[in-house]
Amino acid sequence: MLVKVRLKGEVVYPAEVKGRLAYLKNVILIIRAQGRPLFVDYVDKNLASYEPPFFLSGKVFYYEVIEVPEEYVPFLKCIARQVEEEVKPLYKNKKLGCRDEVTVVVEK
After folding, report:
1. Domain assignment of residue 82, given as a range
2. Which region holds residue 26: left if phi is over 0, alpha if psi is between -120 and 50, else beta?
3. Which of 26, 46, 75, 83 is 20 to 30 Å from 3 at the Cα level?
4. Quick check: pTM over 0.85?
């Protein structure tokens, strides 16, 4: 299966995640600081329940939120893995993986 995802997302600060974007589901998060990607993660539940990794607790960062269409939700981990390979973050996410046969095309 071929999956196309745009790399550009909405830039938000952590306070906005608890507010207006609280009920957003099925998104990929790129955690950035000063324009440099630090970490890539995915959220399959409500975005308000997301907690950043403990090693980012002392850093000032913001999120880039990439929404995934409903038909691609079963491949959320695969898409997040490919986004991670594209942006080359400082910290790798070990829980991202893909066992399905899917080709992910990331548009810049």
Report:
1. 2-107
2. left
3. 46
4. yes
